[in-house]
Specification:
The complex is a heterodimer of chains A (about 450) and B (about 500). Chain A has about 450 residues and is an alpha/beta fold. The termini of chain A are far apart. Helices cover about 40% and strands about 10% of the residues of chain A. Chain B has about 500 residues and is of the alpha/beta class. Chain B is about 35% helix and about 10% strand. Chain B is built from 14 helices and 13 strands. The longest helix of chain B is centred in the C-terminal third of the chain and has 37 residues, at about 340-375. The chains are: A alpha/beta (about 450), B alpha/beta (about 500). The interface between A and B is large, with 199 and 204 residues.
Chain lengths: ~450, ~500
């Protein structure tokens, strides 16, 4: 049982002050038949556990998750090396247990950190304005699509979306659009795994979309030719670039420079563990001219009544607590603590460190790619420009996958599980393999060895 | 400022607080920060689409980073610092064992695409938590996937949308009482529904008549009623069972916003009141830290007729272990992975820590504390409703406004100088000058007494004509912040600065 502060004496005193006999009297406005039926059975959890027992219970559960020694999973969630200070600093109670910074005079720490986060996202993506973060990359993508529909003035405006966007992102966008408009129209990938430009042109002519969503790197690890894609788009069709892995911005040109209107994505790999998929942190950056249409919170710099620099949440008139049913989004929170992790991580990694990180990912994948090729396992999309992950055609995949997994090496994501219909057939033997900066040459060699036999 | 403020009564004082510019302003060209491991394969660089200008991140040392963020943290008020009577937000203490458990490598370092046989523990956490939440809700199935309360609302409304679509009964309207959180109407819009606002009655709760009138007017175009119980005035919607029956009579659904579950957990179950679908806010009721605005989690619980539409995938348990099931009629995913897993671990830890009886004590003690505070504060402030309160209550500034033209905002800011976080102010909208207070069960009577003394001191100063607190707070690292200027000319990143 946890520690409750109230003593029996204090309970009596409180009841006296209130003027009732028992605590139960305070619940008298619950209808008796509802009150009587409130019988819960937690089974083995009926009794509370002490801290010691909690440790034993959860250690037992967590142990079932640590049977592997190395993995090559990516596809939108990326393992990363987390500096000790990130974990330590976010445990400071003043960050961990503070509230949304609606009272700026006692929230300057959170507010300034978010201002720094916004600055970092702008500098990474090249965009002019960033919000204070969203739930994750998938929901940020959905919010970007809905913003494009708002800007177009038609809540059900057609949207194009690259079929090579991470499958999780596509299904989340579909769910969020479902009640007010049709799902996005998918633009297929070409034989090299990049956006099919011919199909794009015909789909634009047919549907007059208000936005195109492209992932770059896409789900197959390929950098898309955003500048070329931009040229195919009419002026009023927004280019939304979604980045499940913004660490690519260490080496590759910013989406802003290539013509993007909105850049969204997922930033957890900057200092937050994989955590079985969350909590992570979505980012949302765009041009200043779309400021009034932005979803989510924003922090702005201002002054206090002593003339000092100060920060505050701003432009809240877009938000649900003011605008209610006319708000730009129903979002009420950001991912404060995870955005803070991102800010601490990027501060410590720094300008040179970020480039080094990108070069590591790029070089490790290059080594993996060459090794696999020399063992008869080619990339599926050979001509494309890859960053950190790619699709490989592995003979006898399911047998080799199971054998490696049984030996504690999880070799990647079997793409046939992520697609249906003809796409599933295309990916029958396809494995999405991803490197992360903690990988050693020895680990990659062991993977290559395991994937080449059996 | 009144130099005579009684320093002995006030918790707030001025310690040494350090100034700190942005992290970018600590930067020095060429200074290296975090060291990555050495690369043991040949270095390669891309030749196409190369970035032409490096992103201008800071160039700082480890100590620079630690000092910077430690200084920033000292400018925040938090639960760990002091009492936080912030209504509607359930700012209770977060037991630290939750943090330790969520950081276990077996939870933190698991990729969501891990083959099921290698993530049985993670699936067990989700499955166990969903089962316990279902028991608390008195409902049949739970999805822990929604990332926050607002996503939970959208998910629940989407389930209702899918249910009506399956019955070839597309509907237009959701009834929402005027006491609702702003997210409720915003979520209705997102789910394709128009909001019909229902007025609350003289006792602060929803009467049966406006529901009957709406049913008369809109009939089977009503998709659902969306109600928070206890509502945002801290009052139990005691007509809920009859109102639910009325809605079920026209095939409409009852959605309950579970933001205020802290008041009734173990004492009343939404499923027993006729609720068809609800969401929990794990970061409120089940004590995962607010973290300056997230992350949270907003699981939804449903009666069995809505279960076929729940977000994919479902976690199932059999003799062979845990596995995924993909429902053919699911509304789809509302979040990557299975949700904010790290938050789910914390909530499960918290519930197991309390056990069944401990969970009920949460409600009892939070309601006791709120009523204790109400008994004291209703002597100095105007109580909005005499109806018995649950875990929170509303007072207003009307006495102080009438006598000395001092508003809620001034009172809230004055409280900061006494060392307390202000209550929720100007919400709910139905009470002009509202102060919504929720002390939670983790505050001791000693701390509540100090809060009462602070309010008494503030009111005494107002009513004796000594102060109007226009310049409060004065003891904080920054004074009253010019929020209007922030909105007039937005400076949203360092690169927006013109100086």
């Amino acid at each position: 049982m946890p520690s409750f502060p109230l003593t029996p004496d204090e309970e009596r005193r409180a009841l006296e002050v209130i003027g009732v006999q028992t605590i139960e009297d305070l619940f008298s406005s619950i209808p008796p038949q509802v009150r009587e039926r409130a019988k819960m059975d937690f089974g083995e959890a009926n009794a509370g556990l002490s801290e010691h027992e909690l440790r034993r219970y959860f250690d037992g559960i967590a142990k079932h998750n640590t049977q592997h020694t190395s993995h090559f999973l990516g596809g939108g969630v990326y393992d990363n090396i987390i500096p000790a200070i990130v974990n330590q600093l976010v445990l400071r109670g003043e960050f961990l247990t503070c509230y949304t910074p609606y009272q700026p005079e006692i929230s300057q720490g959170t507010l300034q950190a978010i201002f720094e986060f916004q600055t970092m996202i702008c500098r990474l993506t090249g965009m002019e304005v960033s919000n204070a973060s969203l739930y994750d990359g998938a929901s940020a993508t959905a919010e970007a699509v809905m913003m494009a529909q708002r800007i177009s003035g038609k809540p059900d405006a057609p949207i194009l979306m690259a079929a090579s966007t991470p499958p999780e992102y596509k299904t989340v966008v579909n769910t969020f659009l479902k009640c007010n408009s049709s799902p996005p129209i998918e633009v297929p990938w070409n034989k090299e795994g990049s956006l099919d430009e011919e199909k794009l042109k015909s789909l634009i002519a047919e549907h007059k979309p208000s936005a195109l969503v492209v992932a770059s790197p896409n789900y197959f690890g390929l950098i898309e030719p955003l500048d070329v894609i931009r040229k195919h788009l009419p002026a009023d069709c927004l280019l939304i670039v979604t980045m499940a892995d913004p660490s690519a911005l260490s080496l590759f040109e910013t989406p802003a420079a290539l013509g993007a209107d909105v850049v969204v994505g997922e930033a957890h790999q900057f200092g937050t563990p994989m955590l079985f998929g969350g909590p992570h942190v979505g980012f949302f950056a765009t041009k200043k001219k779309f400021l009034r249409n932005l979803p989510g919170r924003l922090v702005g710099e201002t002054v206090d009544d002593r003339g000092q620099r100060a920060y505050a949440l701003t432009l809240a008139t877009r938000e649900q607590h003011i605008r209610r049913e006319k708000a730009t989004s129903n979002i009420c929170t950001n991912q404060g603590l995870i955005a803070l992790r991102t800010t601490i991580y990027l501060s410590f990694l720094g300008k040179q460190g970020l480039i080094q990180l990108g070069e590591m990912n790029y070089s490790l994948f290059d080594y993996l790619k060459e090794s696999l090729a020399s063992h008869g396992i080619p990339l599926k999309f050979k001509k494309g420009l890859h960053y950190r992950e790619g699709v490989f055609e592995v003979p006898n995949l399911s047998v080799r996958f199971d054998k490696l997994t049984a030996n504690g090496i999880v070799p990647g994501i079997c793409l046939s599980q992520k697609y249906s219909g003809s796409q599933r057939e295309e990916f029958e033997n396809a494995l999405l393999v991803c490197v992360h900066p903690g990988h050693t040459r020895a680990e990659i060699d062991a993977l290559v060895e395991g994937l080449s036999h059996g | 400022m009144d130099k005579g403020m009684d320093q002995n009564k006030s918790l707030g004082t001025q310690g040494l607080v350090l100034r700190e510019a942005t992290i970018f302003e600590r930067s020095a060209a060429g200074r290296k920060g975090f060291g990555l491991p050495p690369l043991d394969v040949p270095l390669k660089k891309p030749s196409l689409y190369k970035r032409t200008h490096a992103a201008e991140l800071p160039e700082v040392s480890e100590l620079d980073v630690v000092r910077h963020f430690t200084r920033l943290s000292s400018w925040n008020y938090s639960i760990d610092t002091g009492t936080f009577p912030l209504g509607s937000c359930t700012m209770k203490y977060n037991p630290r064992i939750n943090e330790e458990i969520a950081a276990l490598p077996g939870f933190a370092n698991i990729h969501p695409d891990m083959p099921v046989e290698l993530c049985q523990g993670a699936l067990e956490v989700v499955h166990t938590l969903e089962g316990l939440l279902g028991e608390i809700a008195g409902l049949d199935e739970v999805s822990a996937q929604p990332a926050a309360g607002a996503v939970g609302e959208f998910t629940g409304l989407s389930l209702i949308h899918a249910f009506h679509a399956q019955h070839n009964s597309p509907r237009k309207y959701v009834l929402v009482p005027d006491t609702a959180h702003g997210t409720n109407p915003a979520s209705c819009t997102l789910a394709g529904y128009q909001t019909i606002t229902l007025p609350s009655g003289p006792k602060g709760i929803l009467d049966i008549e406006p529901v009957q009138a709406a049913i008369q007017k809109y009939g089977r175009d009503i998709a659902a009623l969306m109600v928070t119980n206890p509502n945002t005035l801290g009052l139990f919607e005691s007509n809920i069972s009859q109102i639910s029956e009325l809605l079920h009579g026209i095939g409409a659904q009852v959605y309950m916003d579970g933001a205020n579950m802290n008041a009734i957990v173990g004492m009343a179950r939404p499923g027993d009141m006729g609720v068809d679908v609800m969401h929990f806010n794990l970061h409120k009721t089940f004590s995962t830290p607010h973290g300056g605005g997230g992350p949270g989690a907003g699981p939804v619980a449903v009666r069995s007729h809505l279960a076929p539409f729940l977000p994919n995938p479902r976690v199932r348990k059999s003799s062979a272990g845990y596995s995924y099931e993909w429902l053919p009629n699911s509304i789809g995913k509302v979040k990557s992975g299975l949700g904010n897993f790290g938050v789910l671990v914390r909530a499960l830890c918290y519930i197991r820590h309390h056990g069944r009886d401990g969970v009920t004590r949460i409600a009892k003690n939070s309601v006791l504390n709120a009523n204790y505070l109400r008994a004291h504060l209703s002597k100095i402030f105007q109580l909005a409703y005499e109806t018995p309160s649950f875990h929170e209550f509303v007072v207003s500034d009307s006495r102080q406004l009438k006598s000395h033209n001092v508003k809620t905002l001034q009172i809230a800011k004055a409280l900061i100088d006494h060392g307390f976080h202000p209550p929720t102010i100007y919400f709910p909208l139905v009470v002009p000058g509202a102060m919504l207070m929720e002390p939670t069960e983790t505050e001791s009577l000693q701390d509540l007494d100090k809060l009462v003394e602070a309010f008494q001191d503030i009111v005494h100063r107002i009513e004796s004509g000594k102060e109007t607190f226009d310049n409060a707070p004065t003891k904080t690292v920054v004074g009253r912040v010019d929020e209007a200027a922030a909105a007039r000319r937005p400076v949203l990143s360092l690169d927006d600065r013109t100086l």
